[in-house]
Specification:
Length: about 350
């Protein structure tokens, strides 16, 4: 998210009014329900300094992590009023005089958090963008970091899984969950996938199976005899991914021994109940991952290597992202759809529509 100045003509002296650059942006001035607090209105771009770039946005997704920030669940310390949006793809319109690694008209991926990408244009530090991967559509490139990127880091940063090893995850039908399935399939890792008790299960099962899921089970089936038998017959999962929290997290942990459990989503912050025996007897290790913090503290060449790997998988059709294009002018409607419990595609705002 990016703090901004709301545009008022009276704020500008006549001699400066011709220079003022105003754009439409999705702004919120307090935390709350995204559908209630988010408004599209004119904002004033800050001046382009010597190390900045001005970017005309082309595409920006609406992810659960954007919605959590608007609700105040993962705010990263920004000030109001602020423009929503963390990631996106755009085209450089203006370069600061000290910027030498980029060119005008370059298509770039905004990678540092809180960039305010839900806007027609943004001004950001040049070192917060990288050239977008070639050969994939802007809406796909714009959606790599907070879905497939999180899946990539969860598999890379929390132990070593070898071909044939098992992983278990809840929230498996989310954008992150589906990316986990596909990355695991490419690496020969087996997945046990827990999905919500909403929507049409048979269609969801077919989708996850087509992506490479090995076992798919609904949350309501976790206590069933059939699923317990399946778990007894399979190798014990070494890694568990928690995107839900609450009783679903507790139920998943009951199935585990000698495993690392990683919580990665602020919506998973619902309290869960684990007694001391989960650690002293079952030897579970609980960890957390925050993509915003990782991006903010990671050098660009490391981020680029990850993006290049993911883009290569997209080009090879080994990674599919389920997206739905929406007009930026209809951002509030798109946010409402993204907030739905049965949303099955990530909305991506096309900024010139």
């Amino acid at each position: 998210m990016a703090a901004i100045t709301l545009f008022k003509t009276s704020m500008l002296r006549p001699s400066l009014s011709r220079m003022a650059s105003t754009v439409n942006s999705a702004v919120f001035q307090k935390f709350g329900c995204p559908c209630s607090v988010l408004k599209v209105q004119k904002t004033q771009l800050k001046p382009v300094t010597s190390k900045d770039v001005q970017v005309r946005m082309v595409a920006s997704p609406i992810t659960s992590f954007d919605l959590e920030a608007i609700r105040g669940q993962n705010p990263m310390g920004f000030a109001f009023p602020t423009v929503a949006g963390n990631e996106g793809v755009g085209i450089i319109e203006q370069l600061g005089e000290d910027v030498t690694t980029l060119n005008n008209r370059d298509t770039v991926l905004l990678v540092k958090p809180s960039s305010g990408t839900w806007s027609e244009e943004v001004v950001v530090p040049a070192d917060s963008v990288m050239k977008a991967p070639e050969g994939i559509a802007p809406e796909i490139a714009s959606s790599l970091l907070y879905s497939a990127g999180i899946a990539y880091r969860l598999l890379a940063d929390f132990g070593t899984l070898n071909p044939g090893d098992f992983l278990i995850q809840n929230d498996a039908s989310s954008a992150v969950g589906m990316a986990v399935i596909q990355l695991c399939k490419a690496r020969g890792i087996k997945t046990i996938n827990i999905v919500k008790d909403v929507g049409e299960y048979s269609a969801l099962f077919r989708r996850l199976e087509s992506l490479g899921a090995d076992v798919v089970v609904r949350e309501s089936q976790l206590h069933g005899v059939d699923f317990k038998k399946i778990m007894q017959d399979l190798p014990a999962p070494k890694l568990a991914l928690n995107g839900r929290g609450g009783c679903v997290m507790t139920d998943m942990c009951r199935l585990l021994k000698n495993a690392t459990v990683v919580t990665y989503d602020e919506s998973a912050a619902q309290a869960f109940d684990l007694t001391a025996s989960y650690f002293t007897v079952n030897n579970l290790c609980l960890k957390g991952f925050n993509m915003k913090a990782w991006l903010a503290g990671t050098e660009m060449n490391t981020i680029k290597a990850m993006v290049d790997d993911l883009a290569g998988m997209v080009r090879a059709d080994d990674l599919r992202l389920y997206l739905k294009k929406d007009k930026f002018s209809q951002v509030v409607d798109a946010v409402a759809e993204a907030s739905s419990a049965i949303a099955d595609r990530t909305p991506v705002m096309v900024m010139n529509q």
